[in-house]
Amino acid sequence: SIADDVPINRQVEMMLDQTKVALIEHKKIGYMAGSELGSLKGTVLSPTRRKAIQKRLSEIETEEDELFKNLSELYLKGDEGAMDDLWELYALSDGNIRSMSHVHEFLRSKITGGDMGRGAISGEFRHQLASTFYNSILSAFRTPINAVTNTTMIATSRPAMQWIGAAVKLDRKEMALASAGIDAIGQAWAESLDMAKYNWDLGLKRKNQTYMGRYDSAGDFEKWKSLAPYYEKYGSFVEKRAYQVLDKIVKVNASPWMKYSQNAMGAGDALARTVIGRMIMRMDAAREAIDQGVDLNDAVALSRKTEKNFREKIFKKNKDGMWVVSDKAANLAGDEATMTKALEGYLHVFEGMQKLPGGRLFFPFVRTGVNALDLTFQHSPAGLFHKKYRDLKKGMYIDKYGLEPKEVASELAMMEGRIAVGSTLVGISLLGTLNGNITGDYPYNKIDRDLWIQRGIKPYSLKFWNPITKKDYYVSYKELEPFNTIISVAS
Q1: Which of 63, 59, 95 is closest to 86 using CA atoms?
Q2: How far apart are the C-alpha atoms of 330 and 314, rounded to whole Å?
Q3: For the chain (length 491 residues), average pLDDT per consecutive 10?
Q4: What is the pTM of this model?
Q5: Which of 4, 182, 310, 379 would suit a FRET pair with 29, their CA atoms being 20 to 30 Å apart?
Q6: C-alpha distance from residue 18 to each of 28, 89, 129 (Å)
C-alpha cells in the first residue's frame, strides 16, 4: 500500500521493466518453438538460417524496447489515457503499433493493406471482398449438405479401409484394431453431434469456430469491432468514413444468414474431426490391450472400458469444457477428411497464390481441389506410389505424420485398404459402363448427346431398373467424393 499523495513513478517504471522482460522472453520462446523451427525437422542449422534467427531475436528486443520507452514517456507526461491506448493498440495491431506516431499508418493499412516493417498487413477491404465472394459461391443450399456428407463419409471410412487392408494380408491384429475403431463410431456420435452444435452456435455468435474453416476470410470479428473507438479517436475523416462503411459490410458478411453455409461446414468439420479422434482413442486402447496379451477376440470389448485412459492424449479441453482434437496424427487425418491439408512439395507453390492480386479469392478452392485429387489418388492403384505410403513403408519420417512406430502398421493397412477398394471400384465401374449401367459425361457429339437427352439418360449416374414403373431410373454419383472421380474416369 502507498499513501494517496505519494508519486508512484518508481513503481510504474519497475512494473514496465518487469513486463518488458516477460514479454520479450515470451515472444522469443514463441518464435523459437513455432513454425520457424518446426519446418527444420531437427536438422542442423545452416549459417544463413542461424543468422536469420538471430536477426529476428534482436528485432524482438528492439521492438519491445521501443514500445516500453514510449509507454514510460507517456506516463511521465501524465498522459495515462494515451498510455492505455498504446498498450491496447499494440495488441490489436499484432505489434505493429509501438508508438503513437504509428497509429495513423496502421489505421490506414488496416483498411487498404500495407506494410509497417513487420510483414504485410491485409486490408479489411480485401478480406470482406473475399468473404462476400465465398458467401455468394457457397450460398447454394446443397453445398453444405454435400460437404458435410462427404467429410463425414471420408472420416468414418478410415477404420473400414484399415480392416480391408488388414484382411487382404490376413493380419488379425490390425483387423481387431480396425474393428475397435468401427465399434467406436456409434458411441462417438453423441459427443460429435454436441461438438457440431457447439461450433454452429459459435458461428451464430460471430465467433471463431474450433477448427480452421475452409473458406472463412472474414477475419476476427471481435478484433475488428475493438478498433472502432480508435478510428473515432485518432482516425482522419477519410479513415473514419472508411471504417464506418466497411463495418456495415463486415456485419452483413458475418451475419448468420450470410454465413450459414460456412457455419454448417465448420460444424460438419468439427463433427468429423471428433469422430476421428474418438476412433483413434479407441484403437489406442485396443492396441495397448493386445500388447499386454489380451486375446484378439476380447480386445474390442475391453477397449470400450479403457479408452478413457487415452482421452488426454488425443484431446485437450478448451475454455468452454469441450474436448478439442490436439493429437498430430488425428489432426492430419481431420485435415485430409475436410480437404484442408497443407500442400507439400512442388504443390506448395499454390500456397503463394494467395499473395498475388486476387489470390485470396482463388486459393482456398485450389487447396480443396488439390486435396480432393490427392485423396482420389490414394483410392486407386497409383496409391502405391503416394509419398506418404512410400515413407511409411520404408519407416521414414514417421514423426512427420504424427505417428509412433507401433502405429505405422495401422496407417499402412488403412492406405492399402483404400488402394484395394479403389482398384475394385475401377473394375466394377468398367464392367458397369460396358453393360450400360454406369454413365460418364454427355457424349461430345451433338447427335449422340441429344439422343441421350431424348432417352432420359443422365450423366455421371448409376442406372437401376424400377420393377414397378418398368423404367430405368438414375442415381447421380457426381457429389460422392472421392469415388466420383474414380468412377467417372472408368466410365
Answers
A1: 95
A2: 7
A3: 76 87 87 62 66 84 90 89 91 89 90 82 78 70 79 92 94 94 92 93 84 60 86 91 88 77 88 95 95 92 93 93 93 89 66 58 68 86 90 90 92 94 88 87 86 87 85 84 80 74
A4: 0.74
A5: 310
A6: 16, 20, 43
